[in-house]
Amino acid sequence: MLDTYIYDDLLYDSDWYLAKTKPLSEKLALKSIESIGHLGFLPLVKVINGNHKEKEVCIFPGYIFVKSGNYDDELPDIRSINFLSGWVKFDGKVSSVSNKVISDLMSYSKELNSEGGLWTRFEIDEIVEVFISGFAVKAKILTEPSTPYDDILVLMKFMGRDIKTSVNWKYINTNESNSFKNKLPRRTRGKGRIIKNKNHKFMVKS
User: Fold this and answer.
1) What confidence score (pLDDT) does residue 22 get?
2) Model confidence at 79, in pLDDT bands (50, 70, 90)?
3) For the chain, how big is the Rg over CA atoms in Å?
């Protein structure tokens, strides 16, 4: 089961804070911040490539969310903590994220992973390329796959005839430069600007 570091029971309604990590050190930074008594949250999502290989990636690379272990605790100076670079600040003030936003983000990442994570999703009537015996053949999608392990019904021309056939997802390609139909939420931009994602909105307060 994918470990997304989700705390199902949010302890209280205080805000969370955004900490910047050293490059490629998000998981190590999470362990470091938890070792000094603070709650941490690192949203991860499963990504599946065309060869059905899975890997975890951070939704917000280079950042983790942190909540104080006790309500009255002051935020520590984390620059000396391993794998952390410091708090994200705007106008000299540490930016906070509401408990409600974190709860929504936890639900979002959990739901996304339960649906198979991020993978190329094809839509009905979309024109794609199907790879057969080393050749690429144009085809039209007739059914949408529920998972990256499903076969997809396509319509393609073969030897001058229209043929309907089922093709495994990994043998289908699209020319779109960004073919993920379910996209990750944008990174934080500060100044209270909303970070938009299809059915979710995440706001960072400065």
Assistant:
1) 96
2) confident
3) 21
* DSSP H helices in 38-175: 99-114
Q: What is the 3-state secondary structure (H, E, C) of the chain?
A: CCCCCCCCCCCCCCCEEEEEECCCCHHHHHHHHHHCCCEEECCEEEEECCCCCEEEEECCCCEEEEECCCCCCCCCCCCCCCCEEEECEECCEECEECHHHHHHHHHHHHHHHHCCCECECCCCCCEEEEEECCEEEEEEECCCCCCCCCEEEEEEEECCEEEEEEEEHHHEECCCCCCECCCCCCCCCCCCCEEEECCEEEECEC
Model's pTM, two decimal places?
0.67
How far apart, in Å, are the Cα atoms of 16 and each of 13, 19, 38, 67? 9, 10, 11, 5
Please write the tens of the pLDDT for every residue from 8-28.
Answer: 444 456 789 999 999 999 999
